[in-house]
Design goal:
Shape: globular
Pfam family, one: Phage_integrase
Mean pLDDT: 83
Radius of gyration: 21 Å
Organism: Paramuricea clavata
InterPro entries: DNA_brk_join_enz, Integrase-like_cat_sf, Integrase_catalytic, Integrase_recombinase_N
Number of domains: 2
CATH architecture of the largest domain: Orthogonal Bundle
GO molecular function: DNA binding; kinase activity
Protein name: Tyrosine- kinase Tec
Strand order of the largest sheet: 1-2
Strand content: under 5%
Length: 271
């Protein structure tokens, strides 16, 4: 687990806890269970109504976690497990949520209406920084939630996190929140209302949706997660370096990008 990225840990944590509970209830080994028991666990998730994508995440978590003494093949690559997942897909297929994505220029045009960061309220600054972190990194909200000032390098011209991107608003945000921060806590994003505690992932999602709505984007159609498709599609259009994009967002191959994230910009017309 020490080698897992923070985003991976967050993504897997829910299913590892469920797996731990399952092992206790079924009296099986946490790290080296009988394969049918692990498949039963995935079957239980299906019976609970979870999507193929969620069950596949649970499969990945088990594949990374289990250390079977009798076989060197990872759990997720076992023929039985691969057939099981194929059956799950047939019964409950996973399709891309969006056929097209919103135009990122709408957000930037909205930001330009009030481009002097010193004139922004702390609420506006927090929401804008959150949106820029999502767009510049192409990461999920749970990854942004885990960003820490302890792992941040701040200079007059750059603000570098583990996601390796520039964020102009970060300097202003750090300056404005410095006196509000608990010195023992390192999470980057904190609440703009007292007692200014570190925000939750749900708050980050809400801030993102506030910016989308203010920029004129339909939040009934597009969730916070849509920023990932927008960011990655724009990067692919501008650079064309698919291998670099895949590496930066943590994918193992281009299939996920091609299927779920490479989307055209939705065309809008003013009458």
């Amino acid at each position: 687990m020490a080698s897992w990225r923070d985003g991976t840990k967050t993504q897997y944590q829910t299913y590892i806890k469920k797996w731990e509970t399952f092992c206790i209830q079924n009296e099986c080994s946490f790290l080296d269970p009988p394969i049918p028991k692990a498949v039963d666990f995935l079957t239980g998730l299906f019976q609970q109504g979870l999507s193929y994508t969620s069950i596949n995440t649970a499969r990945s978590a088990l594949s990374a976690l289990l250390h079977r003494k009798d076989n060197t093949i990872p759990f997720g690559q076992l023929p039985l497990v691969k057939r099981f997942m194929k059956g799950i897909f047939e019964l409950r297929p996973s399709f891309p949520r969006y056929e097209a994505v919103w135009d990122v220029n709408k957000v930037f045009d909205y930001f330009r209406q009030k481009c002097n960061v010193s004139d922004l309220s702390l609420k506006e600054l927090s929401e804008r920084l959150t949106m820029l972190l999502l767009l510049l990194s192409g990461q999920r909200s749970q990854t942004i939630h885990l960003l820490s000032i302890a792992s941040m390098e701040l200079s007059p011209t750059r603000c570098v996190f583990q996601v390796k991107e520039n964020v102009k608003q970060s300097r202003e945000y750090i300056k404005r929140t410095q006196k509000l921060r608990d010195p023992e806590l390192s999470q980057l994003l904190i609440s703009y209302v007292k007692p200014n505690k570190p925000v939750s992932r749900e708050t980050i999602v809400r801030w993102c949706k506030n910016v989308l709505k203010s920029a004129g984007i339909d939040t009934k159609r597009f969730s916070c997660h849509s920023t990932r498709a927008v960011s990655i599609s724009l990067a692919a259009e501008k650079s064309g370096d698919i291998d670099k994009i895949i590496s930066s967002v943590g994918w193992s191959n281009a299939k996920t990008f091609q299927t779920f994230y490479k989307k055209p910009v939705e065309q809008t017309f003013n009458l």
